[in-house]
Design a protein that fits this description.
Structural class: alpha+beta
Number of strands: 17
Distance between the termini: 127 Å
Largest sheet: 7 strands, antiparallel
Strand content: 25-35%
Helix content: 25-40%
Number of helices: 11
Length: 418
């Protein structure tokens, strides 16, 4: 018969590092649990699994809850409690037992128990260290299938809690920035794009009211679902890469009407302290008025180009900064220039007959002066090549545009405009 000082060589006790060696050499005969060879099959399996896992695991057996644990669980004890805790009763520590008593009673009665993000204060090297853990409890059965003990598995969640706290602190800072910003800003969290924060400017753009806060974007603004935004947000969330767009259209329901507006906007991935993307910052500027103004300008230019072509005008532009002369194809043909050729103003005016050149140069120079009203008065000129024409223009600090109407002598000796 095994007795005090006997080393237990049972196969299920092999391995397990420091605590495995202690368990094999422990005098279990003198405890209520008895020698290992007499333990119930389920307990043997549980002890064997415990010795071969890196997860902190405790076993509390019998009505006295005699303790066994693995190497990983040593860190869950206060300084000085290991190895004294091995083979002792959990009840020997009143403060701990006060917490575990109702939990173990529930497990022994067939219940289920777990504790999430439980704060543990553990003394190490004279200091109290705070750790957060998830604890899961499971029953271990006797050979007759009655419950004989409790297995406790512990997962450290300290990093998760600290990361969560840091994230919340960062969100508070972000919220304070967003709320006072003059541009439209909002912050989405999670893959469902929950609207966590949105300032007044963004809510005004959405035209939905502050009740959108806390809702997924697809529910708050369902009209955006068939537009590019959902896929773009998903891509930024998955890749962490920033996305930017200029003058992009967005169709938003305002007062029951689907309205098109244009925005410069960006999606920026926000990461937690672990470097993981957990949200997206959306900044937007409404540029609808600028886009519509450019569209109108483009339409006006198209109309002007049509008018120029219809009236067969030669048009040339002067850049006052570079003093470069450019013209439309008709004028370049008259001057004998290539389609993509640019020349200086002097080279252009040299083509004008001597008697008219000085007057044209003075008119252009005066038109560039603010007090002149920026107009080049109409006048009739002669080119050195023998062509005659009328000149009219308008200038500003960036561009001087001159229209030339070519005239050639008709067959009967009079003048005919082309």
């Amino acid at each position: 018969m095994e007795s005090l000082g006997t080393k237990h060589s049972d196969t299920f006790l092999q391995g397990g590092g420091e605590t495995g060696e202690l368990i094999r050499n422990f005098d279990w005969y003198s405890t209520p649990i008895g020698i290992p060879s007499s333990w119930p099959t389920a307990l043997k399996f549980a002890v064997h699994a415990m010795l071969h896992t890196s997860v902190p695991t405790h076993i509390s057996w019998g009505t006295d809850y005699i303790q066994l644990y693995n190497d990983a669980a040593i860190s869950t004890f206060d300084k000085g409690r290991h190895p004294a805790a091995l083979g002792s009763s959990v009840k020997s520590r009143p403060q701990i037992w006060k917490i575990l008593d109702p939990v173990f009673a529930s497990i022994m009665a067939g219940g289920k128990e777990q504790q999430r993000d439980l704060l543990m204060k553990i003394e190490t090297n004279g200091l109290i260290e705070e750790r957060y853990v998830d604890i899961f409890y499971a029953p271990i059965c006797n050979d007759d299938w009655t419950i004989g003990g409790v297995q406790t598995v512990i997962f450290d969640t300290t990093d998760k809690i600290h990361s969560f706290r840091q994230t919340k602190e960062d969100e508070l800072k972000l919220r304070s920035i967003i709320e006072v910003a003059t541009i439209a800003i909002c912050f989405f969290t999670g893959k469902d794009m929950i609207i966590e924060i949105a300032n007044t400017s963004m809510i005004k753009i959405w035209a939905k009211g502050p009740e959108v806060i806390g809702k997924p974007l697809k529910k708050a603004l369902p009209e955006l679902e068939d537009q590019p935004f959902s896929n773009l947000l998903k891509e930024v969330y998955n890749t962490g890469k920033t996305f930017e767009a200029k003058a992009s259209p967005a169709h938003i329901i305002i007062d029951g009407v689907l309205t098109t507006s244009y925005f410069d906007y960006s999606y920026v991935a926000i990461r937690n302290s672990n470097g993981e993307v957990y949200g997206i910052l959306n900044m937007a500027t409404d540029v609808t008025s600028q886009v519509l103004a450019l569209q109108e300008l483009h339409d006006n230019k198209s109309q002007l180009d049509f008018t120029i072509e219809a009236t067969q005008l030669g048009i040339w532009n002067l850049n006052p900064i570079t003093n470069t002369f450019t013209g439309n194809n008709r004028l370049k043909d008259w001057f004998g220039l290539e389609d993509d050729e640019k020349i200086s103003l002097k080279a252009a005016t040299d083509a004008i007959a001597d008697k008219d050149r000085h007057a044209v140069e003075n008119a252009i120079s005066n038109a560039l002066q603010p007090a002149s009203g920026r107009h080049c008065p109409p006048r009739r000129t002669h080119c050195s090549g023998g062509h005659r024409g009328g000149v009219r223009g308008r200038c500003d600090s960036r561009l001087c545009r001159i229209a030339v109407r070519r005239r050639v002598p008709p067959r009967d000796g009079g003048e005919l405009s082309r």
